DNA sequence: TCTCTATCTAGGAATGATTCCTACATAGCA
DNA sequence: TGCTATGTAGGAATCATTCCTAGATAGAGA
C-alpha cells in the first residue's frame, strides 16, 4: 500500500516514534510490498533515495518499528530475518523451491487453540502457522527439469 | 527415550546412515531429551563421552540425520537453530520469557489446510504451528517482579 | 520561533553461529 | 581382510547482526 509522507508521520507519532527521512523511507518500502524483504533488501531499496544510509540504521529502525507494533518479523526456517509491514493477524505459505512467502488470511486459522491438557499451564498470547510446499512456478520447473536434462545429453 | 546402541545401529542402517560412535552419541543425546537442544548444547553433552569431538562433526551429523529423516530442525523466532529427535508430526508451545519449547500433540492441528482461494496454486506438503505465550514459571516470575521492585525502593 | 537534549545516524569494529577446507581415520562392502 | 567412499577434527572463513562512538537532528518546552 502506497503511503504519503503525511500518513507516515501521523502513524509514527501515534506510536511515539520519531520521524526521520530514513525511517519514513524504510517503512514506505516495507508498506508497499507484499514480498517480506530482508533487512539487506530494504537497505538496497532505500539506498536509491538515501545513498548515505547505513545498514545499521535499517536494523535499528526495524527494531524500533517492531517494538512500536508497526512492523513484524517473519522467519522462514532458519534463513535470514524477513520483515512484514502487514501487522494484521495472518499466516504464511512458504515455497520450498524459491523461498517466496505468500500471505494467508484465513479467519479459521486465527482461532486455533491448544487443549487444556496440552497447554501445560502456559498462558498463550498468539500463534503462527506456516504452510510449506511448492509454488506454481516451482512445480512447473520441477516437471521441466527432467526434460531439460534429457536435452543436455 | 533411552536407546541402546543396537537400536541406534538398526535405525541408522535402515536409513542408510553410517554408524560412528560420535553419531550414535549425538542421536542418543537428542533422543533422550524433550528439550530441543541447540547444536552447541549437544556438543557440550556429547563432549563428556567424546572429549575430542568437534563442533563441525555435530553440525555435519545433524545435517546427515536431518536428511535421513531421523531428526528435525525447529526454529524459535530467529534464535539459534534447535533440534528435535521427535520426528512424528507435532507442534510447539514457545515461552516468550525463558524460550523453552514444549511439544504439542494434537490431531486437530495436524489437519489444517488452506482454502483453495488462498492457496495460490501452491502444492502444500506440510505445515507448522507455533503457539507463543508464557509458561507457568514465567507467569509467576512476572507477578513477583513488581513486589520485588517495591522492596528495592 | 529558538534552544536544548535525548535520540538518531553513519561508519566501522566486534560477535558468534554456521559453513568451508583439508589431512588423517574408518565403516562397511565385496 | 583390503579398499575406498565417507566421516572426523580442527582451524579458517563467512556473513548476518550487534556493538560502539562521534557528529547530527527531532521535537518538547520556553
Ligand atoms: Mn505477511
Ligand atoms: Mn518437538
Ligand atoms: Zn517457488
Ligand atoms: Zn518460561
Biggest interface and its residues per chain? A-B, 36 and 36 residues
Order of helices and strands of chain A: HHHHEEEEHHEH
Query: What is the CATH level 1 assignment of the largest domain in chain A?
Result: Mainly Alpha
How many domains of chain A? The number is 2
> Might you state the CATH topology name of the largest domain in chain A?
Arc Repressor Mutant, subunit A
Question: Per DSSP, what share of the residues of chain A sits in E-state strands of 2 or more residues?
Answer: 15-25%
Quaternary organisation of the protein chains: homodimer
The CATH superfamily title of the largest domain in chain A: Winged helix-like DNA-binding domain superfamily/Winged helix DNA-binding domain
| Helix percentage range of chain A | 40-55%
> Could you tell me the mean pLDDT of chain A?
91
* N-C termini distance of chain A: 48 Å
Instruction: Tell me the major beta sheet of chain A.
Output: 3 strands, mixed
In CATH, the architecture of the largest domain in chain A is: Orthogonal Bundle
